[in-house]
Design goal:
The chain contains 5 helices and 11 strands, in the order H-E-E-E-E-E-E-H-H-E-E-E-E-H-E-H. The chain has a 9-stranded mixed β-sheet, with helices on one face. A two-stranded parallel ribbon has the order 5-9. Helix content is 14%, strand content 25%. The chain has a single domain, classed as L,D-transpeptidase catalytic domain-like. It has 229 residues and is an alpha/beta fold.
Length: 229
């Protein structure tokens, strides 16, 4: 059973304090008026509507609580990474799925609440899971036994599970890094520093990304300027 990274948020009763920090400007990108980048609210309401056909509810996103910058869209994106690669810009709070022709699908993300919590570098999506099980790490249980000890055996996927409906597992050198890209039970945290290192997306976005990338996909998490000095 895979053990997930310390410090996923677990809904209001288990809320960990998020950090409100200064953000650098988003990369210079030209938004493309394509079907995947709706230009009006009605299109976003359709994209972020409640989803049918799932074993557990996936409610609609309350768009009034999301900064529009972090809604899914296709953008122009210059990178040396090959099409099909996932690039996470921790500082800008975006994840990109690189496409042909200098384009990418861009998703807003929530990232680690402290710089030291964030994974950096290249990894492989070696495992994918629908409605994944969540298990706190031994470090989480040791630090806060009253909060996490009762979940030492894991929590099945479903409503309230902090991983949401999908998870993409980052491996390096054939070993689980304990970092994931996953959904969230707290959509209003997208665009903030809030987790203990995992990359969280809106549930509709992680479902979209999940279906687009196979196991074996390369993922790159960019170091922030704070980390590089």
């Amino acid at each position: 059973m895979a053990i997930d990274r310390r410090g996923f948020l677990f809904g209001a009763p288990f809320l960990l304090a998020g950090c409100a920090t200064a953000r650098r400007p988003a990369p210079a990108e030209a938004a493309l008026p394509l079907a995947s980048a709706p230009a009006h609210a009605a299109s976003y309401e359709a994209i972020y509507a409640a989803l049918d056909g799932e074993p557990h509810p996936v409610p609609a996103v309350d768009l009034s609580r999301i900064d529009p910058r972090f809604l899914r869209r296709e953008v122009a994106y210059a990178t040396r990474e090959e099409p099909g690669t996932i690039v996470v810009d921790v500082e800008a709070r975006y994840a990109y799925l690189v496409r042909e022709g200098g384009r990418a699908l861009r998703y807003g993300v929530g990232v680690g609440r402290e710089e030291g919590f964030n994974f950096r570098g290249a990894a492989t999506i070696a495992r994918k899971a629908e409605w994944p099980r969540w298990t706190p790490t031994p470090d989480m249980i040791r630090r806060e036994p009253e909060r996490y000890g009762k979940y030492a055996g894991g929590l099945p996927g479903g409503p309230g599970n902090p991983l949401g409906p999908r998870a993409l597992y980052l491996y390096r050198g054939g070993r689980d890094t304990l970092y994931r890209l996953h959904g969230t039970v707290e959509p209003w945290t997208i665009g903030t520093m809030v987790s203990s290192g995992c990359i969280r997306l809106l549930n509709q976005d992680i479902i979209d990304l999940y279906r687009r990338v196979p196991a074996g996909t390369r993922a790159v998490v960019l170091a922030s300027s704070a980390a590089t000095g």
